[in-house]
Amino acid sequence: MSQPPLPSNATQSANAPSAPSPTELPATPIPLSPTEQRRAARAAKAAARAAKAAARAAAREAPPPPPTGRTQASPQEALSRNLALGALMALFVLCLAWELWLAPTGRGSLAIKALPLLLPMAGLWRYRLYTFRWLSLMVWLYFAEGAVRATSESGLAMWLATAEVLLSVLIFVACALQVRQRLAAAKAERGEA
User: Rounded distance, CA 131 to CA 171, Å?
Assistant: First the structure.
């Protein structure tokens, strides 16, 4: 007598577990092992890096923003810059000539006071607003020195000190005008936009 054929799932060994059907899957997810968790975290980080790189590439290919309306200084701004720069150069020359040749104090070692006046010249030339602001504060040191020496010395030194005071005031006024004009222009530009 022959035996009837075995069903298809009977070909598996009797002690091997059978795969659960989709309806028999557990309701709670199976926790990942630490190795699988690290792999998943690495994959998530790699996906985030790829997304950031794609965003950067898209930003590089985007057209540049349109230029602002102001590309050159107005005539009033140019005038105040030229006044500040001219007065600063004149004050530098005055300080050097005063302390080295015209009425030196001691062996001319006070001529070093002219060196800080070289620092703001490049910033004034390039219309740097920050330079105009700090120069308007620094120039009061020269004003104070000139005021003290104008009242305490006599002869040529008194006239040189008076010139230092006048140049200091001119630099301050020109810097203050430049700052006010630039801030007013920026405010008007923001109002139009």
Answer: 12
Q: Which of 149, 130, 136 is nearest to 87 (CA)?
A: 136
Q: Which stretches within the chain are classed as H helix?
A: 34-61, 75-97, 119-125, 129-152, 156-192
Residue 127, domain member (yes or no): yes
First-last CA distance in the chain: 99
Q: What is the dihedral of CA 27, 33, 36, 37, to 10 degrees?
A: 90
Please say whether the beta carbons of 86 and 129 come within 8 A. no
Tens-place pLDDT, residues 123-175: 999 999 999 999 999 999 999 999 999 999 999 999 999 999 999 999 999 99
Residue 30 lies in a domain: no
Closest CA to 118 of 94, 89, 138: 89
The answer as to whether 40 is a domain residue is no
Write the DSSP symbol of residue 103.
S
- The answer to the question of residue 146 being in a domain is yes
Q: Structure tokens of 27?
A: 């309701």
Single pTM value for the model: 0.64
CA distances from 73 to 76, 79, 153, 175, 179 (A): 8, 10, 42, 15, 12
Dihedral sign of CA atoms 89, 90, 96, 97 in order: positive
- Owning domain of residue 134: 76-192
Please count the structural domains in the chain.
1
Pick the closest to residue 86 from 182, 170, 180, 181 (CA basis). Answer: 170
